[in-house]
Amino acid sequence: MTNILFWLILFTPAWTLIDESELDPDFMWHLRKIPRVVNERTSYLTSPTFEADAKMVVSRACGIECQKELPATNLSELEDSLSYETVFENGTRTLTRVKVQDLVLEPTQNFTTNGASVRRKRQVYGTDSRFSILDKRFLTNFPFNTAVKLSTGCSGVLVSPNHVLTAAHCVHDGKDYIKGSRKLRVGLLKMRNKGSGKKHRGSKRSRREANSGNRKEGTKENLKERGEVGRRRKKLGRGQRVGEGRLSFQWTRVKNTHIPKGWARGRTGYAALDYDYALLELKRAHKKKYMELGVSPTLKKMPGGMIHFSGFDNDRDDQLVYRFCSVSDESNDLFYQYCDAESGSTGSGVYLRLKEPDKKSWKRKIIAVYSGHQWVDVHGVQKDYNVAVRITPLKYAQICLWIHGNDANCTYG
């Protein structure tokens, strides 16, 4: 029954078991003018030592009930947090100061961050509702093909032909760059056939079947596998592996890494959970379909309040794991939810599927980055959530700047 429910949700337009007639007509992507984040000046920093352990050094959140009591963030504080470090493949590092333009400041509801209390284990709450995606016809096609694995053990999502969005703590612990990030690599999903991998002669149709998916592997499915195509199609949705194929990764080196200063506070300060995101530029472009960025809507404008993300949970032996759940609470910068997730899935791209304006089609966009497990104070009681960092208009502008190198293509989002 669980698997049947998964496939129903996967292919219903709203990705929820909700009657479309009951959906708010406002459940769509609304393009809005984005504040401008502009590079002001860049200076060189000393090269990092890459000696930190792979764990977060974040501070305690003040709690959901105290959001409204927080003072408004001023422009200079925002600009300081949105300034960013860039670490290059050769180990050099720069700091780029930015200016924010066309921003209307509003009272913030962000969580404060003073003193850390973090449990590293990512949580599965009650019944495990995760789904392992094992069929190659899903693994090699959108949206699952956008999920990637980092050599540091995290996940990420393709957001351009050259870029991967992930969590900042996957490469930096809040004070220093972690061990293993010196030669950071990104693994893209690939299906291989068991056996020698030699090419065989065959019909054009056979060759087309062998080259299906977003990447041409240059090998042909063996006769036994092709003979079972009909039976496998009848079993779609049961989560089984397909034929003799096995999952592997094509590893690509990272050219440079961008991290907001709000996270990379260094040894004199604490990282802010609100800024737990990073962008990796690949040394070699991929040819897969990627997921576009979107500005995170408020909870009431999300169908069923549901979010979705796929990553490589450590307890599932390199399997791609998909999950969906409803958001329990939100602040200006964070989603609080109980999506079942284990270590390894952090850095995954959280996405929605909403209608495009003036069209009948639906489109998926990344609206947050899964950060992991966090304790927060709720009415004086420590409560645990799995947390995702929302892509706000300012963060959209910053990530867009990182992708394009300028703000010319980042006016609307």
TrEMBL record:
<protein>
    <recommendedName>
        <fullName>Inactive serine protease 35</fullName>
    </recommendedName>
</protein>
<feature type="signal peptide">
    <location>
        <begin position="1"/>
        <end position="16"/>
    </location>
</feature>
<dbReference type="GO" id="GO:0004252">
    <property type="term" value="F:serine-type endopeptidase activity"/>
</dbReference>
<feature type="compositionally biased region" description="Basic and acidic residues">
    <location>
        <begin position="208"/>
        <end position="230"/>
    </location>
</feature>
<dbReference type="Pfam" id="PF00089">
    <property type="entry name" value="Trypsin"/>
</dbReference>
<dbReference type="InterPro" id="IPR009003">
    <property type="entry name" value="Peptidase_S1_PA"/>
</dbReference>
<keyword id="KW-1015">Disulfide bond</keyword>
<dbReference type="InterPro" id="IPR001254">
    <property type="entry name" value="Trypsin_dom"/>
</dbReference>
<keyword id="KW-0645">Protease</keyword>
<feature type="domain" description="Peptidase S1">
    <location>
        <begin position="140"/>
        <end position="197"/>
    </location>
</feature>
<feature type="region of interest" description="Disordered">
    <location>
        <begin position="190"/>
        <end position="241"/>
    </location>
</feature>
<feature type="compositionally biased region" description="Basic residues">
    <location>
        <begin position="190"/>
        <end position="207"/>
    </location>
</feature>
<keyword id="KW-0721">Serine protease homolog</keyword>
<dbReference type="GO" id="GO:0006508">
    <property type="term" value="P:proteolysis"/>
</dbReference>
<dbReference type="InterPro" id="IPR050966">
    <property type="entry name" value="Glutamyl_endopeptidase"/>
</dbReference>
<comment type="similarity">
    <text>Belongs to the peptidase S1 family.</text>
</comment>
<keyword id="KW-0732">Signal</keyword>
<keyword id="KW-0325">Glycoprotein</keyword>
<dbReference type="InterPro" id="IPR043504">
    <property type="entry name" value="Peptidase_S1_PA_chymotrypsin"/>
</dbReference>
<keyword id="KW-0964">Secreted</keyword>
<keyword id="KW-0378">Hydrolase</keyword>
<dbReference type="InterPro" id="IPR018114">
    <property type="entry name" value="TRYPSIN_HIS"/>
</dbReference>
<dbReference type="GO" id="GO:0005576">
    <property type="term" value="C:extracellular region"/>
</dbReference>
